[in-house]
């Protein structure tokens, strides 16, 4: 193998780059299927991408010197990684490339062997045991979590979607639920094949058999009867938000733990992945992944508070409408939410600002919040109006947030963009919890206004899956190790 980093191809050498990407596609898939490796570029997964998408990701991944990330380097790295038969891990190619350059471009096989020594020859993956997952409820978030889990179904020893539990919706229930998984007006078609086994109440998606269980109450289900043991229940219904209500799940046979995909009430542990997921312990039977807004703003608030200190802040959320609102004016138990969601901006309350303190206690009592629901189906924005403990310029704050999105331990949660052209639909499908819009940042002395976009469905669902992996004991180690 070459001893130095391959020369970066000219920008117009498109065909040659595509040829390299075409060779990479099966290698990336094989590493994932056989070794549990997930490759990414600055947090953007390379799994299941087309050659054009792989080239595009490299095109916009820049080193500190402004050079384009070399797809040739990625090719050499992937081959060198495959040669050591690694165990399950998440590997960020862009960050490894930066470390490779900083190390003076050593022989790449030696470099990779040293960086991934702890997972060489399978590491701990030989003892990695998969975890059964059951989705209780199959609405917007439930179906997106299903899509994410199914995209990783080839990963032996990872999360395995085994069943969904729903109330029977009448004739053609199974066919209609399969159709909702197959087609989505916001997120597009399912990537793969879906068939229905009506005789056995199953949906077959990309070769994965998903049992559809009809039940009215959590305690009614006998999971071992379907071959499901020690599963994690993901409750997407929002019907129960406290420990008493959600504890009905653990009364069923075969249930190990419960994860709520909504803000919890009472003493439930609220977990924002990347912030306080390290507080999850074996004794935690029921936890909540908080709300989409809490997940979007907490990582950004944490890094700002750590660096500049937050004395006080107000969070205003401009949020897409949700399924609990009415299409046209009708009765609703909530204030204002009875008015048409598709015709009005609707002021409503949000508990996100208070919920931040549950994951980030140092901000307790320092934040207020409100929300405006707007006539868009997905992607929202949080406006952080902050009084800091010291003065800061727009350039300093933006440079800090951009670096946090690339190099901090929260790079899975925080993204950053500077473009005068982007609008909300450009963030559909983002896997990050929140995306800082650098051009919109405002500063004046110790006052700062930061705008954070977020896909309140898909980005949040990825945060839920990250918590789910932690609860299921199937999280992968990161390479290189995050710093800060």
Structure description:
By secondary structure, this protein is of the alpha/beta class. It has 3 domains: 14-125, no CATH class; 129-262, NAD(P)-binding Rossmann-like Domain (Rossmann fold), CATH 3.40.50.720; 293-456, Dihydrodipicolinate Reductase, domain 2. 30% of the residues lie in helices and 22% in strands. The chain has 12 helices and 21 strands. The chain has helices at residues 14-35, 51-59, 71-83, 93-102, 108-115, 140-151, 173-182, 243-250, 292-308, 352-359, 394-407, 458-472; strands spanning 37-41, 44-45, 89-92, 131-136, 159-166, 194-197, 202-205, 208-214, 231-235, 255-260, 269-270, 286-288, 310-320, 346-348, 367-374, 380-388, 414-417, 434-437, 442-444, 447-454, 478-479. Helix 3 crosses helix 5 (108-115). The longest helix is centred in the first third of the chain and has 22 residues, at 14-35. It is globular, with a radius of gyration of 23 Å.
């Amino acid at each position: 193998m070459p001893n130095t980093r391959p020369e970066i191809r000219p920008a117009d050498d498109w065909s040659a780059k595509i040829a390299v990407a075409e060779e990479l596609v099966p290698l990336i898939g094989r590493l994932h299927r056989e070794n549990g490796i997930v490759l990414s570029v600055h947090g953007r997964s390379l799994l299941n991408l087309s050659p054009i998408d792989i080239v595009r990701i490299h095109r916009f991944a820049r080193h500190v010197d402004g050079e384009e990330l070399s797809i040739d380097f990625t090719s050499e790295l992937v081959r060198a990684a495959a040669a050591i038969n690694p165990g399950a891990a998440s590997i960020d190619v862009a960050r490894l490339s930066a470390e490779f350059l900083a190390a003076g471009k050593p022989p790449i096989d030696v470099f990779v062997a040293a960086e991934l020594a702890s997972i060489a020859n399978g590491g701990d993956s030989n003892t990695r045991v998969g975890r059964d997952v059951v989705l209780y409820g199959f609405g917007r978030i439930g179906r997106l979590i299903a899509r994410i889990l199914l995209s990783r179904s080839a990963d032996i020893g990872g999360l395995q979607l085994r069943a969904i539990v729903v109330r029977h919706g009448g004739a053609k229930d199974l066919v209609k639920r399969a159709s909702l998984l197959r087609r989505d007006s916001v997120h597009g078609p399912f990537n793969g094949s879906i068939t229905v086994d009506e005789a056995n109440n199953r949906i077959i998606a990309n070769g994965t058999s998903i049992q559809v269980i009809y039940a009215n109450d959590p305690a009614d289900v006998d999971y071992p009867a379907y071959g499901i043991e020690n599963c994690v229940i993901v409750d997407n219904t929002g019907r129960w938000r406290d420990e008493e209500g959600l504890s009905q799940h653990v009364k069923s046979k075969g249930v190990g733990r419960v994860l709520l995909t909504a803000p919890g009430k009472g003493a439930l542990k609220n977990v924002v992945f990347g912030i306080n997921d390290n507080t999850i312990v074996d004794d935690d039977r029921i936890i909540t992944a908080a709300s989409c807004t809490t997940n979007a703003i907490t990582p950004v608030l944490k890094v700002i508070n750590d660096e500049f200190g937050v004395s006080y802040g107000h969070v205003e959320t401009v949020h897409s409408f949700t399924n609990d609102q009415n299409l046209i004016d009708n009765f609703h138990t909530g204030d204002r939410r009875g008015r048409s969601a598709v015709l009005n901006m609707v002021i409503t309350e949000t508990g996100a600002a208070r919920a931040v303190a549950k994951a980030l206690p140092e901000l307790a009592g320092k934040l207020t919040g409100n929300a405006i629901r707007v006539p868009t189906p997905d992607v929202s924005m949080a406006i952080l109006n902050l009084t800091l403990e010291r003065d800061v310029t727009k350039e300093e704050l933006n440079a800090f947030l951009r670096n946090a999105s690339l190099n901090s331990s929260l790079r899975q949660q925080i993204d950053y963009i500077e473009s005068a052209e982007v609008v909300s639909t450009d963030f559909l499908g983002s896997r990050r919890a929140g995306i800082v819009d650098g051009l919109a940042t405002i500063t004046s002395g110790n006052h700062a206004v930061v705008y954070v976009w977020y896909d309140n469905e898909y980005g949040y669902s990825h945060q839920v899956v990250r918590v789910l992996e932690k609860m299921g004991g199937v999280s992968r180690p990161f390479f290189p190790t995050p710093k800060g």
